[in-house]
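step=predict obj=DUF221 domain protein n=930
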Amino acid sequence: MSDNDTTKSSSLQGLYLTLAPVALVSGIYFLIFLVLRRSQRRWYAPRTYLGSLQESQRTPALPTGFFNWFTSFWRLPDVYALQHQSLDAYLFLRFLRMTVILTFVGCCITWPVLFPVNATGGAGETQLDILSYSNVDSSTFKKRYRYFAHLFISWIYFGFVMYLIFRECVFYINLRQAFLLSPFYAQRLSSRTVLFTSVPVALRDERRIRKVFGSAVRNVWIKRETKELDEHVEDRDKAAFRLEKAETKLIKNANKQRLKALKKGSGGSGGGGAANEVEVKANPAPGEGESGGLAARWLPRKKRPTHRTGLLGLIGKKVDSIDWCRAEIERLTPLINKEQAAYREGKPEPGPAVFVEFRTQAQAENAYQTLAHHEGLHMNRYIGITPSEVIWSSLDIPWWQLVIRRYAVLAFIAALIVFWAAPVAVVGVISNVNYLETISFLTWLQKIPDIIMGFVTGLLPSVALSILMSLVPVVMRLCAKLAGEPSNSRVELFTQNAYFVFQVVQVFLVTTMTSSASAVGKQIASHPGSVTTVLASNLPKSSNFYMSYFIVQGLTIASGVISQVVGFFVFTLMYKYLTGTPRGLFQKWANLSAISWGSTLPVYTNITVIAITYSCISPLVLGWACLGMSLFYFAWRYNVLFVTDTQIDTRGLIYPRALKQLMTGVYLAEICMIGLFGASVAPIQLALQVVFLVFTVLFHFSLNAALNPLLYNMPQSLLAEEEARQQRYDIEAAPVAPAGSAAAAAPTTKAGLPQNGPSGTASDAIEPAPAGAVLSKNSTAGSDTVAGTASNSPAMQTEKVGGAPVGLTGATSPPPPARGNILLRFLKPWVYANYESMRALIPPHANEVDFQTMYTPNVEQNAYLPPSATSEPPLLWIPEDLAGISKQEVAHTSRVIDITDVGCTLDEKNTLVWDHNAARPPIWKEEVLY
C-alpha cells in the first residue's frame, strides 16, 4: 500500500508469523510422539494389550517403526471403533471426516470461480485481502455484476451443505436403529428400562405402576430417601480407603527400616536376614497388642501413620490412623446394614423417580413413546440410561423446581455469555489493532515493525481466545447438573448445546464484530456517508483472524492430542511418585482416558460453522479449515482407536445435534451475504439471496418434521421386523421332531422349549441369535396395557407360510442393493445406507456376550437401586512384604473389613510391584453391561 494509505493490511505477516512458531512447536510434538510411541506402549497404545480390556475391545497392534505403522493405521477402518468401542466414538470420527469433506468440496466449488473474480475486482486491496469479497469494486453498476458469481456459488455450496446434513441424518437414523436393535444392545437392561421422573405421589407405589403398564413390567425400582445412608456409606468408604493408605504406609516404612538394618548387617533382634523372619500367627490371640507386633520391631509407635479428625485433617484430635479407621468401620458397618435392610423393605419415603424394567425392548419403547400421565410436566421419560451414569441427587427434585432451575440456569448462561464478551472483545480488537493507528492517541502503532505487528495480530489473540474458551465447559456441566439433568449422558448433551452457543457467540460473532469495528470505526467517523462501502470492504477482513485461529487450533491442538506430551509426563510422575497404594497403581494403569463429548464436539462444529460462513466471503478460510480439520481427524482417529475409552454413552445422540448445529453456519453465511449485497448496493443479488434464505428455512423445517421423530425413537415397524426375524431364526434352529408327535405340533424355540405366547410367538428365547436379532429374557408376548408387545398390534402381525413367519422382514427394509458407484451412494443414502445395510456393521462379537449369565438374580434385583443401598465395604488391598507385617495386618484388619495382600509386593528398593500384564488384581471386578 502507498504511504498515504490510512490503514495497511498485515494479513500475510500475521499468517506466516503465526504459522512459523506454531509449525515448529507442532513438529516437536509430533517428533516426541514418534519417539515415545515405540517404547511407551501403555500411554500411546493401551487398547492393543491392556489386561483390563476384553479381547473384543482391543485394537490390533501397529508396527513399532518410526513410519512403517502409518499404512497399517490408515487401513484400519473407522467402523472398527463402532464394533470394538462405542457408537459415540465411531460417530465422532465420522463427524470429523464429514467436516473435512465439507470444507474440501467447498474449496473445489469456490476457489476456481471466486479467486479470479475477487483478485481482479479492482478495489485495491493487498496481501490476503485481495482474494476476498472486499477487493470487488462496487463503485459502478457494471462492476457490481461480479457479485452474481458470489450469489450463485453460494447457492451451490450451501445447497451441498444442506444435502450433506440431510444425508448424514438418514445414515445416522439407520445406523442407530440397527445398532440399538442388535442383540448387543437390545438384550441390555438399560434398553428395557425406562426412567420416569416427576412421578405424582399417587403413582409412587409398585402395585400402581404395574397396574398402569400391566404384565409387560418385570421390575420396578422406586427411588427413596437415602440422605443419611449416603452420608454413612461415604464416611465408611473414606475410613476404609484411609485405612488402606495407612496400612500401606506402615508396611512400607517398616520395610524401609528393615532394609536399612539388613544393609548394615544387623537384621534386628535376631541378627539374621530374610531367612530368619518371624513366623506370623494367622489368628492372633485375643488381647495381643495390635499396635505393636512385627511392625514395632522396625518402627516405633510414634512413627505410625496418624491424622487429625477435624476439618480437612488440619485441626482436631490427633489419632492413630489404623486404630481409628478400624473403630470407625466397625461402628458404621452394622448401622449401614440396618439402613440398607430398611431401604429394601420400602420404609424410607418414596421420591419422584421410578425405574421400570420391561420384559422386552419393544415394550419398553412403547412405554417410552406413550404419554403416561394426564398432568403436564409429570412422568418425564428417559430410556437407555445405565445405573452408573445416573445422577441420583437430580432424581429427588420435584417438577416445579425443575422448571425454576431450568430457567435460572438458562438466565445464568445468557448473563455469562454477555459478560464473557468483554475479554473476548479485547481479543477481537487486538487482532485488528493495526487498523487503529490513525487514531490520534494511537499513532505510535505506526512505529511498530511489521514482524511484531504480525505476531500481535496473528498468534497472540488466537492463543488468548483458546485459553479463554477452555474454562467454559466446566461451568456448563455444573449448570446442567443444577438444572436437574438425570444422567451424565444428558449432562454431556446439555453441555454440547450450551457450549456450542457460547462458541458461536464468543469465538465467532463477538470476535468478528469487534475486529471489524476496530477496522472501520475511524473511517466511518471521518466519512459517515460512506458507511455501506466501508462495511462491505472491511467485514471480510475479519476472516484473517480466523485463518490464524485455524492454524493454532489445527496444528498445536491436533499435535497435542496425538502426542499427549503433558498428559504423558503427568501420568508418569503420578504413577511412579505420587501413587502410594496398590489400588492407586491399578486404577492409574488400567483406567483409560475418556473423551468429553460435550466440550470436544462444539469446538469442531464451530470451526466448521465459521468456515461455512466465510466460504463465499473469503474462500481462503476454507483451505485452512480443511487443513485444520484433517489434522484433527488424524489425531483423534489415532486416539479413539488406540488410546481412549468411552465412559459416557449417549447412544449416538451427539451426532444429530452436531449436524443440526451446522445449519447455524448456513444461516449466518446467508445473512452475511444479504448484508454485504445491501452494503454494496446490489439489489438484484440481495433479493435473490433473500429467496434462497426462505428456501433454507423451509428446508430446515421440513427436515426437522420428517426426521426428528426418527432421531430419538425406535420405530415399531423395525421392532416387529426384528421379532419376525427372531421367530424365523428360532424355527430354523429348532430340532426336527418325529412326525405326529406333540413336539412337532407345537412351535418351539431355539432351545427346544415350547413357545408360550399367543399365536405361538416366540417370547422366551434363551440363546443368542445372529446379529440383528432381538432377544429378551423371561419375555411375555402380549399385554393389555399401553406397553404391550409390538407384535400384538394388528399392523405388526406376521403370517406363517410354510412353517416360517413371513411379513415385515424384507418388506419394511429391503435387502441391501449391489454396491453402486460413489456418486449413487452419496445421492441415495436411503438405498445404499438403509437399515439392512447398517445391520452388516453390527459388532461381530455381539453373540459372544451371554446376558443370561451376566444378569444374575442379585445383579438384576439391585441394578437400579441407589449405590448406597447396595454398597458393600470395599476390599482393601495392601502390598506383601518379606517381614510378614502385611500378613499380620491382614489378620488384624480382617476382623472389621475384608483385606488382602495378594498380587502386590515390595521389591528390594521398597517399591510397589504388581503384574501389569494380567491386570486382574483382587479388587478387579468384571464389567456388567447394563
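step=describe
The chain has a mean pLDDT of 79.
step=end
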